[in-house]
Write a structure and sequence with these properties.
It contains 3 helices and 8 strands. By secondary structure, it is of the alpha/beta class. It is globular, with a radius of gyration of 17 Å. The N terminus is likely disordered.
């Protein structure tokens, strides 16, 4: 029932994880700046939160940070990226579960000097996966960030903040 007593147009459709199976825009206030993150149909809300974590961690470092940027020269879209004045990527963040060939392509071909993979997988598993996925000479560009699921459960979008002591970072 809606507020006026009329039935809702449709009941929300949930997937197996309990996430809304709808496209939606979420507004976050991170470091006193407003960011709009879009959730596409079928995408888990956790992925939206992981992109917010990437913005929280890297917005102070890169002032040209963009979210869900389509790149015409690459076959993958960055979850979060920063570009220089020639529109070449300086920073690239992949959030959530990522395939090995995707990580390898990003590290080899994007030209980004700083690449972050942000997920809620334990850091040891992320490190083993990254070492197996790509040649060791590319690993020095990678930063792994593990965010525990319980840190993402109670998020206030109007004042997004994480205690960085809850995060685990790994530099190669």
């Amino acid at each position: 029932m809606g507020l006026s007593g009329t039935p809702a147009v449709s009941d929300p459709v949930l997937d197996d994880d309990g996430d809304l199976w709808l496209a939606r825009a979420y507004n976050f206030r991170i470091h006193e700046k407003r960011y709009t993150l879009f959730k596409v149909k079928g995408e888990p809300y956790r992925h939206v939160l992981l992109r917010a974590v990437a913005v929280f961690l890297y917005a102070p470092v890169y002032d040209t940070l963009t979210i869900d940027t389509p790149l015409f020269r690459n076959k993958y879209k960055a979850d979060v990226a920063a570009f220089d004045y020639a529109n070449d990527p300086l920073f690239w963040a992949e959030c959530g579960e990522t395939a090995a060939d995707t990580l390898e392509f990003i590290v080899k071909h994007t030209g980004a000097r700083d690449i972050a993979w942000i997920d809620s997988t334990p850091i040891g598993q992320m490190e083993a996966f990254a070492r197996k996925a790509m040649h060791f000479k590319y690993l020095d560009k990678m930063t792994l960030v593990s965010v525990p699921d319980d840190a993402l459960q109670y998020v206030d979008p109007d004042h997004f903040w994480l205690d960085e002591r809850d995060l685990t970072r790994f530099f190669f």
